[in-house]
Amino acid sequence: MVKHIVMYRLKDRTQENADALRDKFLSMKGKIDVLKDIDAGVDVLKSPRSFDVVLTCLFDSMEDMEVYKTHPVHIPVMEYVKSVVEVSHSVDYKL
Predict the structure, then answer these.
(1) pLDDT value of residue 48
(2) Residue 56 in contact with residue 4, Cβ under 8 Å?
(3) Quick one: which of 49, 47, 46, 57 has its CA closest to 17?
(4) Helix (H) or strand (E) holding 23
(5) CA separation for the pair 67, 46 (Å, rounded)
(6) CA distance to 5, 12, 47, 49, 79, per residue, from 57 (Å)
(7) Triad 69, 92, 5: Cα angle to 5°
(8) Per-residue pLDDT band at 94 (split at 50, 70, 90)
(9) What are the pLDDT digits (tens) for 17-74?
């Protein structure tokens, strides 16, 4: 199993925008077969160094994660992400 975690800081750091990004991520749930589980949460701390939204995805393998990245449902979500995100940081864990 592979856990893919990405943290995002928004260009406009409002709660409304963080909620919108979280909802956009969760819209992929059940639509991408290789995606075993997905969760997206809003950072409640809101410190200057914190990120605004944390996305966690679970896959059976690294190959499945690559399929996810090119999936027709994922591509428009990532276009939206690029339009609203200032910076991101990702980590992958093999479980």
Answers:
(1) 73
(2) yes
(3) 46
(4) helix 15-26
(5) 33
(6) 6, 24, 24, 23, 18
(7) 75
(8) very high
(9) 999 999 999 999 999 999 999 999 987 666 777 899 999 999 999 999 999 999 999 9
- CA dist 49 and 70 (Å) reads 31
Q: What is the DSSP string of 51-89?
A: -SEEEEEEESSHHHHHHHHT-TTHHHHHHHHHHHEEEEE
Q: If pLDDT is split at 50, 70 and 90, which confidence band does 95 have?
A: confident
Neighbours of 24 (CB within 10 A): 18
Residue 75 tokens, joined: 């591509």
Residue 94: CB atoms within 10 A of its CB come to 8
Specify the DSSP element, H or E, that contains 2. Answer: strand 2-10
**Other beta carbons less than 10 A from residue 21's beta carbon:** 22
